[in-house]
Amino acid sequence: MKLDSLIPAPLRKPAKPGEGSGSKGAAPGDLKTALPERPSDAQRLGDRAKEAPVDVLAWVDQRTAATGFLTGMLFRKVPKGTNWFYTLGSATLFAFIVQATTGVFLAMFYTPSTTQAYASISHINNDVFLGQFVHGMHKWGSSVMVILVFLHMGRTFFFGAYKYPRELNWVIGVVLLILTMTMAFTGYLLPFDQRSFWASVVGININGTGPIVGPYLSDFLRAGPELGATTLSRFYAIHMLLVPGAIIALIGAHLYLVVKLGTTAPPWLRAEKPKVAAPVSRLDAGVEGNGGEPAR
Amino acid sequence: MTRRRAFTIAAQGLGGVAGAAIVLPAVGFAVAPIFHRGKERWEAVGPVGDFVEDTYRQVVFTETEGIGDAGKTTAYVRKGSKQLGEDPKQIVAVSNRCAHLGCPVRFVEAAGNFICPCHGGVYDFQGKRIGGPPVRPLDHFQTRIRNGQVELGPRYSVTSQLEPVRARDPGEFTGGVWEYLYPPRPSTFPPPSG
What we know:
The structure holds 2 protein chains of 2 kinds.
Chain A: H1 41-64, H2 66-74, H3 88-107, H4 117-126, H5 131-158, H6 167-189, H7 194-208, H8 214-222, H9 229-261
Chain B: H1 3-31, E1 43-47, E2 57-62, E3 72-79, E4 91-95, E5 106-108, E6 113-115, E7 122-123, E8 129-131, E9 140-146, E10 149-158, E11 164-165, H2 178-181
C-alpha cells in the first residue's frame, strides 16, 4: 500500500500547481461493462482494518483541525538557496531535547544535597546501568548545545536574517542564549566536586562585581552571604524547573515567528526579477532595466 | 462609566489581586535570604601561645554550618606586630579568600607574601595587594581571646588603608565612592570599630 493513502487528504502534501489527479469523478472504465465481484466478509474486514490508522487520524483532525496548522508548518515554502547552514537552529533544538530527556533520567538518581550530591553522581557513573553514558550525554551535550547556539546566532547575523521583520525573533534568541548560559552555569555546580564548587564560587563572584545590584544578586544566587546547603538546591531548582520552562516557552515563540515570517534567502542570491513589470511610476527615473531593484 | 465597564474593571482588579496574592509571597520567599543575617559564630582555633608576630599560622574553621567540609574556610593568624605599628595584644586573622574572584590564596613563607594560584594576585605580609588583578586587600576575621584561646568571628573587608568595612564579596572595591557603588549587604555583620 502506498504511504500516501494512509494519510488523510488534508494532511497530504499539496499537489504542485498544474498537477492534478486528471480523472476527477470519472468512473473506471470496467465498471460500465461488468459488475465487480462482491468481496468476502474477511476481505471487507481486512480493508476496514487497513483504514483504521486513517480513521484515527481523521477522528483527531475533526476535533482539533490540526491538519491545517500542520500542513502550513511542515510544507511551508522556503526560499531558493536554502542550505545546510539553515539546519543549525533545528540542531540546537535537538540538542535541547537531548538535554531535557537525559536530564529527566539523571534527576531520578541525583540527590541535591551537599552531603550526598557527589556520592549520587558517583553512583550514577559507577553502578547504574548505562549511567555513565547518560550522564556523559548530558555533560558533553551541554557544550554541544552552547556551541550550536553560537553557530546558529552567527548564521543569523552573517546572513542578515535578524533584519526587519525578524528583529523580535533575534531578541527572543538572545534571551534564549542567556537562558542557555544560565543552564550551563547552574548545572556546573550540581556534581559538587572541587571543580564545580570553585567554578561556582568564581562565577557567583563575577556576578557580584556588577555595581549596586551585584552584591544583592550574588546573595540571591547563594541564598545567603556564603555558598551553603541552600545554594545547591537553589541552583538545582533553577537548573531543572525555572529555566527549562522558560526555554520551552520561548522556543515556542521563536518557532512560531520562524513559521509566521518565513526564512531568508542567503545574501549572495540576488532578488529575482519580477514576473510582471513594475509600473513605471515605481521605478526611479533613469534606472530602468536594473532588474527591478530599487536604486540606492 | 457604564455598567459593563465597571464590571470589566472590577473583574480585572480582582484578577490582579488574586495574581499578586500568589506571586508576591513566592518572590518574597525567593529573595528573603538577601535580607537575612545568620547567627554570629565564634570558634576557638588554638591557645594564644601558638601564634607569633613575624609569621602566620594556618587554621581551618567552620564559617557555614550544616554543609560539612564545604562550609569550612582557612584563615592565616598571627599576633599584632609592633614593627608594623599594630597592637601586640591584638590577634590578626587574614582570610585566604582572594579579593579578585575568591580562589584560595596561600601564604608563602620565603617571600612573606600571599599568592593566588588562579590569576596571579599577590598580597604583602599584611594582606595589602601588591600585584595582579585583586581590587582590595585580603578580608579579615574578627578576633578575640577567651580563656587563653584565640577565637575567630565574622568576616569583614578592609579598604586599601586597612580600615575595616562590612564584608564584601571578592571582586568588589572598598572605600570612597565604592562604598556606595557596592553597597553593604544586610546579610553581613558590622565591622569591628577601630
